[in-house]
UniProtKB/TrEMBL annotation:
Entries under InterPro entries matching the protein: CheY-like_superfamily, NreC/VraR/RcsB-like_REC, Sig_transdc_resp-reg_C-effctor, Sig_transdc_resp-reg_receiver, Tscrpt_reg_LuxR_C, WalR-like
Gene3D superfamilies from the UniProt entry: 3.40.50.2300
Molecular function as annotated in GO: DNA binding
Protein name: DNA-binding response regulator
Keywords: DNA-binding, Phosphoprotein, Transcription, Transcription regulation
Annotated HTH luxR-type domain residues: 150-215
Length: 220
């Protein structure tokens, strides 16, 4: 299978650099380039790429709105956010909009290729370190839940699945969760798959956000 990739960035040199790296891989094919969000949305609709490399800060329609629209019109497409800084608040907003992760623009080529393959396979590309930073940025915007009702979808989860979700929400990797809960890593992965299915979530990132917004984990 060839992973079809759309590159969206307002810097022509960066688009060329990404395209050059992708063309060296037998399982990848850059199928289009967009210089702004509007072009990215139009090309995503026309080309239906497997993965979109999406810059956050572009003129006109930015990467956040473009991400939201790409996912709406091409649900099978996965979006990887490109950002200069790993604390870019816009990148976090794009994750909540449905992106499958984000990469720094100075990411090494081999890491970029691994991330694209992971996202194309349905995984999220956010390291535990970045997940923890995501939580730090989300906490000020999440109600303390003192008067709110918990999300009813929590009732769909088993006790063990809730335990796994709590650990995911704390930013632990599957390996760390396995060690914490004394489970096999494959078992953790199976639990996480069922959690995403039951909660109707796209990926691990949305699971983290859900854990906080549903009051399973408190912002403090």
């Amino acid at each position: 299978m060839t992973i079809r990739i759309l590159i969206a960035d307002d810097e022509a040199l960066l688009r060329m650099a990404f395209s050059t790296v992708l063309e060296t891989q037998p399982d990848m094919a850059p199928v289009g380039e967009a210089a702004d969000g509007i072009q990215a949305i139009r090309l995503a609709q026309d080309l239906r790429p497997d993965v979109v490399l999406m810059d956050v800060r572009m003129p006109g329609t930015d990467g956040i709105e473009a991400t939201r629209e790409v996912i709406r019109i091409s649900p099978q497409s996965r979006v990887l956010i490109l950002t200069t800084f790993d604390l870019d608040e816009y990148a976090f907003t794009a994750l909540k909009a449905g992106a499958s992760g984000f990469l720094l623009k100075n990411t090494r080529p081999e890491e970029l290729l691994t991330a694209i393959r992971s996202v194309a396979a349905g995984d999220a590309v956010v390291s535990p370190r970045i997940t923890r930073r995501l939580l730090e940025n989300l906490r000020p915007h999440i109600p303390d839940g003192s008067s709110a009702e918990r999300d009813e979808r929590l009732s769909r989860l088993s006790a063990r699945e809730r335990e796994v979700l709590i650990q995911v929400g704390c930013g632990l990797s599957n390996t760390e969760i396995a060690a914490t809960l004394y489970l096999a890593e494959a078992t953790v992965k199976s639990h996480l798959g069922r959690i995403l299915q039951k909660l109707e979530l796209r990926d691990r990132i949305q699971a983290v956000i859900f854990a906080y917004e549903s009051r399973l984990i408190h912002p403090a």
